[in-house]
Amino acid sequence: MPLEIVRNDITKMTVDAIVNAANESLLGGGGVDGCIHRAAGKGLLAECRTLGGCKTGKAKITGGYNLPAKYVIHTVGPIYEDGKHGEKELLESCYRESLTLAKVYNCETVAFPLISSGVYRYPKDQALKVAIDVISDFLLENEMKVYIVIFDKASYKISEKLFSDIAEYIDDNYVDEHADYRRESMRMNMPMPTSVGFFEADMCECKAMSAEEDLDAKLKQIDESFSQMLLRKIDEKGMTDAECYKKANIDRKLFSKIRGDVHYKPSKPTAIAFAISLELSLDETEDLLKKAGFALSHSNKFDIIIEYFISKGNYNIFEINEALFAFDQSLLGA
């Protein structure tokens, strides 16, 4: 099951478990910790008193009490100093330990905040990268749906270089849709040269014949559906079905529908997710999209961002989704 970045209040998430960015006492505090304790009620604090605290990088689990989540997984993130005191390793451990506990308790859905990115001062772009890397590695081997919950825009940040590179790429390639339409209309309405007017009747007849031939040729090319082409590409790449849908951030049940229905029509983000999973070139991506009735366009920022990552040879779907979320675009897979 996939990883999804959402903007929400983590205490409102209806999942099997939410993760609390706690302090070592586990007795509540500020930020996310305080919000979770207030929403869960006194029962959570009473159970936490029995746990004897928690070391940095470790995790412990309690009931959810008044929360919509069944469990709360408490983990203690590192206080960021300068990145040279094992902060990254401790933060990675927070995510791994929490996911392991969720698996032990048979959780199918888990929601994380960005651990340590608040009062513990871990740089937000680096905290996000640690979260994405650890969670995505876990999901390659396990079936679970995981959310990274962002409360507001200020609490979410990708690297400044990546953001500026993508913004520049969009500026360089974005074409105003209406300007494009006007130019096309002008081109279509341009008068034909009159110097060969006596051939006009023959030309019209030739054009009609040519149009019929083009249509026949195009109809003959409708030989593969999206599903058939996808399955063929998976075989050509030497991938298993599971490797493909996990790398595409796609749910196993959705993949089963696609495999079982030769005429299945996916959404555009789903089709692109599979192109990313298969590491297709831009031309190959266009071919796959055509089978689903879509195309990439320079009048669409979502499409330009996808083109940016493919042109750079970066097929990490989770990094792509980080960028899409930062630019308020739909995410791939999920």
Description:
- With 334 residues, this protein is of the alpha/beta class.
- It has 14 helices and six strands.
- Strands 1-6-5-2-4-3 form a six-stranded mixed β-sheet, with helices on both faces.
- Helix 5 (160-173) crosses helix 13, helix 9 (241-247) packs across helix 11 (268-277) and helix 11 crosses helix 12 (282-291).
- The longest helix is centred in the middle third of the chain and has 22 residues, at 200-221.
Q: Which stretches of 5+ consecutive residues score pLDDT under 50? A: 178-201
Work out the number of β strands. Answer: 6
Amino- and carboxy-terminal Cα gap: 8 Å
Average pLDDT taken over every residue: 87
- Net shape: elongated
- In sequence order, what are the helices and strands, one letter per element? EEHHEEHEHEHHHHHHHHHH
Give the helix tally.
Answer: 14
The portion of residues forming beta strands comes to: 5-15%
Which structural class should the secondary elements be placed in?
alpha/beta
Question: Strand order within the widest sheet?
Answer: 1-6-5-2-4-3
Helix content: 40-55%
Radius of gyration: 26 Å
Largest sheet: 6 strands, mixed
